[in-house]
Design goal:
about 425 residues, two-stranded antiparallel ribbon, 3 domains, Heat Shock Protein 90, disordered N terminus, alpha+beta
């Protein structure tokens, strides 16, 4: 299992992916340039004369191979910037479009059978780089094709009229655009599926690797707590040990339940989970998160006193609400309130978690379904920040996944600098009320 698939830094991952895909483009170009040169040589040998067209294909193929060698050398460096590899990709597509236009010109303009060559850079841009590159390649293909048609007409006015050329010009311009849209959508879908699959494989591996250390820590804590010297410890040291025990238990639960939530076994059936009494769970989660953030004075709970049970596993729901409440503290300033409200309505129980923090833009909210949701411009998770080790990008994703497993919904209401309100709806369990 290659760990290079699990680079969590999005910018670094994108840079390495650009480099790798530039190398792939170079390799693909070797094949079809060698094919062009081979065809020119074979056809020249069959006709015993190197005609203008065959000669052009031969020399343009050789020139293309030389330029491709230069591109290959440029892709060997592992430490170039994203901007460098993006520019390199654009230069490669420009070369392919130029080669295609030259072949169309020497094959007779609109009579050319080589128009299909324009699809090569579009497909490579869409599948290997991204949608914007595919669309730019499609625009470039339309422009280069039109240039080849007009240039051939100027050299050979009697071959066809510009009016006659309008139909293929419009047809191929639209066809290039459609190809770009199709391949970019396919690439986006495949990339998301592959990223989610690889991330789940990583989480499955970590589930086994991380459980053992927390078990060892728990055993050592138990030995200290039941040791003869424990009773003579100062009260502050006992409190520290108890806090360490609580946090280790919480960490162990998060490792076990978060990873199980993300990669549930085939035998998991949410309908088999026992009902959960929600109000104590919310109170415990709120107090624990506020204590961890050292903001006990900022937590505000508006929870009914009545017993309200929901359908769902208590441990997994605790993970979901821990993530949501911790996010509220993480992305709001000390001294601003974090408000947790619950109410009963019909067949559902509605919970809102509201903060007055930095909020999210519309585009950031659309990323809720992605594995690596990370707020742009935040300090959490950056080197040297206090949340560097905790902002893994899984919080909202895991919470949404858990809640949906039990028939609930999670929705966001947020705007930049105005705070965020998370609305959670869970199914009420009447059997246990």
């Amino acid at each position: 299992m290659p760990l290079s698939r699990y680079i969590l830094d999005a910018k670094d991952e994108y840079r390495l992916r650009l480099r790798l895909h530039n190398k792939w483009i170079v390799k693909i170009r070797w094949f079809y340039l060698v094919l062009l040169v081979s065809v020119a040589i074979v056809t020249a040998g069959l006709t015993r004369a190197l005609g203008i067209y065959q000669g052009f294909v031969l020399w343009i193929g050789i020139s293309g191979l030389l330029l491709n060698s230069l591109f290959w050398l440029l892709t060997q460096s592992k430490y170039r910037s994203v901007r460098f590899y993006s520019a390199l990709a654009m230069c490669q597509f420009a070369l392919d479009l130029s080669l295609s236009a030259c072949v169309v010109y020497f094959q007779g303009g609109i009579a050319s059978r080589a128009t299909v060559l324009f699809a090569i850079p579009i497909i490579m841009a869409g599948l290997l780089i991204g949608q914007i590159y595919a669309l730019m390649a499609a625009l470039g293909a339309g422009a280069f094709y039109a240039l080849a048609i007009v240039a051939y007409h100027r050299q050979n006015p009697g071959a066809y009229s510009i009016r006659t050329a309008l139909v293929p010009l419009i047809f191929y311009a639209v066809a290039f655009w459609v190809i770009a849209i199709i391949v970019s959508r396919v690439q986006a879908s495949n990339a998301m599926d592959e990223r989610e699959k690889s991330y789940k494989e990583l989480l499955a591996m970590l589930r086994h690797q991380l459980s053992n250390p927390t078990s060892v820590i728990a055993a050592i804590i138990e030995m200290l707590e039941h040791g003869d010297a424990f009773q003579s410890w100062p009260k502050s040291d006992k409190d520290y040990l108890h806090q360490l025990k609580r946090e280790n238990l919480r960490l162990n639960n998060m490792i076990t339940n978060v990873l199980s939530a993300v990669t549930p076994s085939n035998s998991d059936d949410p309908k088999l989970d026992k009902a959960t009494e929600l109000m104590p769970l919310l109170n415990d989660a709120a107090m624990s998160c506020a204590l961890g953030a050292k903001r006990l004075n900022d937590i505000q709970t508006n929870l009914p006193n009545e017993k309200l049970s929901v359908i769902g596993n208590s441990q997994q729901l605790r993970v979901a609400f821990d993530n949501l409440i911790e996010n509220a503290f993480r992305y709001s300033e000390k001294g601003t309130p974090v408000i947790i409200t619950a109410r009963f309505g019909g067949k559902h129980i509605h919970v809102t978690i509201e903060d007055k923090g930095q909020g999210m833009s519309v585009s950031q909210q659309k990323n809720l379904s992605e594995m690596l949701l990370r707020l742009e411009g935040d300090t959490a998770g950056k080197p040297g920040s206090k949340d560097e080790d905790y902002n893994t990008g899984l919080g909202l994703f895991v919470s949404n996944l858990i809640i949906e497993r039990f028939g609930g919904t999670l929705k966001l209401e947020s705007s930049p600098k105005q705070g965020t309100k998370v609305n959670v709806t869970l199914l009420k369990d009447y059997m246990h009320d």
